[in-house]
Amino acid sequence: MPTPRGIIAVACIIACTPITATAAVPQRGASTPAWPVADTEVQLPLGAHENFDAGTWSPDGRHIAFIEPGSAPLTAAVWIVDGERGADGSERTLCRVPLTGITGDLMWPAPGDYIYVVRNRDPERSVHGALYRVRVSDGAVGEVVRWPHTRVVWAAAASPDGRRVVLDFDGSLVVVDVPSKKMSTVHRWVPHGSGGLTWSPNGKTIAFGRNGYVCTIAPNGKTLRTICRGGYTCWSPDGRWIVFTRETDEGRAPGGQKINPHITAYVIRPDGTGEHRLAPNVTDDQMNPMWSPQGNRILYRRFEMRIGPVPTRWWMAALRA
Question: What is the pTM (predicted TM-score) of this model?
Fold first, then answer.
């Protein structure tokens, strides 16, 4: 997962690049469903850990793993905190992972024995990228596969059973079979422009951002379908909904530049119907939304824009019953 500045850049790419998929974008239905909707949000208390970057739920929803970039240029800590209370003193450092300054992505698939960490490449130091597997019981770190420093990973997602990891390499979807370490390219597109990856709960479909649109595809590269405009997707645990984000703005300057762009979370059915805002009464900038395994909460982050270091604030939205 790129740094805040990188995410903003990706959002601009998403907004400005045209789609080239052949399928038509479904139209929103006449009726708007009342669920899922979140009317309130609560900031996850993380205390001094304001620099927690990528996050992921544990399979049972009891914990959240985060990456905290370290002071050293090529290392970061993986933390585990309580999924309800945040950093309340029970949090622990699981391990330190050799990450670059671009940090990476976290995935914690079932059955929960391992956390996958994506290390992005560092072009300034010619440092390669890699997929690591961290054992939760003791924090042991093992490398699964690596790739050259010329390739950028914009997103990653583990299959529900944890046996496969899909990566977005600059507009190429690559599926890594973890047991065999085989990497297979299942889809390519141009121009580049991405935004998140997620597997359906049954493992039969991947949703991803493609040049500013949410698309779905089978892991073998078949049945490409365009769902809606947006990116940074996450499938609901019951498979009925996909939460995604879309860049919105309050207008444009005379030269065409966007004024006060924001990131807003929406939900939609996998068939492209029922699109509506996730939290109409909540502040915008709901970045990288992640559905809890129980399906009753969504975790997302929001950057505090200011001069100097940009802290990440993590928020929890409870879905209306």
Answer: 0.84
